[in-house]
């Protein structure tokens, strides 16, 4: 907490999508962790971005340590040595790039330090960005462009496990459609995640095998589950639609 009259100063910043024309603002949840990269222990911040790239930065200095795709994208070839994307295709008129919701969004990811895995629900979509003649009318919103869904490729969602040391995808579990649900992982090696069809599922963290699922009856949007102890018994709670659903193992 800053003392009265004290002034904060910006230590560093990193811009994931310079000259953003896709509405890929970085509203995703950053995750802190201690990761050994190149044989050197680092205090890092990890971010799966709407633009389809997964970033690992030194959270003390802001140095980019890793920038690798975690979703399908064709707008950038790679992240260059200067930390900026090498842009190939901004509009997506010939190839697919993530839609305005992005490869992920505001739903929380999770990190398992014991297994060294970062879990994120990923949206695979195919969209083209097209210019629109801007009309300024008092009191109304205006835009200089729009998004057109390209239907020549399948859209789907996926829970993915990523190694933050390399950016390698260790496993994935696919959903029928893109999801906006969050993820929670536990020290015991279980990952809980939801999908757009309303399924709440528990996975083995190491291998991605589904262990259990429950159909909640409503799409799970934004929410990640939480866990708590009550009278010595562990519960898992998830919000689905306008309902809170709690689960626990049977009492012995």
The percent range for strand residues is 35-45%
Secondary structural class: mainly beta
Q: Kindly state the number of beta strands.
A: 19
Q: Termini, distance in Å?
A: 46 Å
Uncertain segments: none
Helix percent band: under 10%
How large, in whole angstroms, is the Cα Rg?
Answer: 20 Å
Query: What is the CATH superfamily classification?
Result: Quinoprotein alcohol dehydrogenase-like superfamily
Order of helices and strands: EEEEEEEEEEEEEEEEEEE
The CATH C-level class name: Mainly Beta
Shape: globular
List the domain count as a whole number. 1
Query: Within the largest sheet, what's the order of strands?
Result: 1-2-3-4
Question: Top keywords for this entry?
Answer:
Methanol Dehydrogenase, Chain A, mainly beta, 19 strands, 43% strand, four-stranded antiparallel beta sheet, 252 residues
Account of the protein in words:
- The chain is mainly β and about 250 residues long.
- The chain has a single domain (about 30-250), classed as Quinoprotein alcohol dehydrogenase-like superfamily (Methanol Dehydrogenase, Chain A, 8 Propeller).
- It has no helices and 19 strands.
- The protein has strands at about 30-35, 40-50, 55-60, 65-70, 75-80, 85, 110, 115-125, 125-130, 145-150, 155-160, 170-175, 185, 190-195, 200-205, 210-215, 225-230, 235-240, 245-250.
- A 4-stranded antiparallel beta sheet has the order 1-2-3-4, with no helix packed on it. Strands 7-8-11-12 form a 4-stranded antiparallel beta sheet, with no helix packed on it. Strands 13-14-15-16 form a 4-stranded antiparallel beta sheet, with no helix packed on it.
- β17 (about 225-230) and β18 form a beta hairpin.
- The model has no long low-confidence stretch (mean pLDDT about 90).
């Amino acid at each position: 907490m800053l003392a009265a009259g004290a002034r904060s100063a910006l230590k560093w910043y990193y811009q994931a999508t310079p000259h953003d024309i896709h509405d890929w603002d970085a509203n995703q949840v950053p995750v802190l962790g201690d990761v050994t990269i190149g044989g050197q222990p680092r205090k890092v911040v990890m971010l799966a971005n709407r633009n389809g790239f997964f970033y690992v930065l030194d959270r003390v200095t802001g140095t980019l340590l890793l920038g690798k795709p975690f979703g399908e994208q064709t707008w950038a070839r790679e992240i260059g040595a200067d930390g900026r994307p090498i842009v190939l295709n901004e509009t997506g008129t010939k190839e697919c790039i993530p839609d305005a919701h992005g490869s992920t969004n505001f739903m929380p990811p999770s990190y398992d330090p014991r297994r060294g895995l970062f879990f994120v629900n990923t949206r695979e979509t195919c969209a083209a960005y097209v210019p629109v003649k801007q009309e300024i009318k008092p009191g109304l919103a205006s835009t200089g462009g729009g998004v057109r869904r390209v239907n020549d490729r399948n859209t789907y969602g996926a829970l993915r496990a990523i190694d933050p040391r390399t950016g390698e995808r260790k496993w994935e579990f696919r959903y029928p459609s893109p999801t906006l649900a969050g993820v929670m992982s536990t020290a015991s090696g279980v990952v809980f995640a939801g999908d757009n069809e309303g399924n709440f599922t528990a996975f083995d963290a190491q291998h991605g095998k589904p262990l259990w699922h429950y159909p909640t009856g409503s799409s799970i949007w934004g929410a990640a589950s939480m866990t708590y102890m009550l009278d010595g018994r562990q519960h898992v709670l998830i919000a689905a639609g306008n309902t809170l659903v709690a689960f626990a193992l049977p009492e012995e």
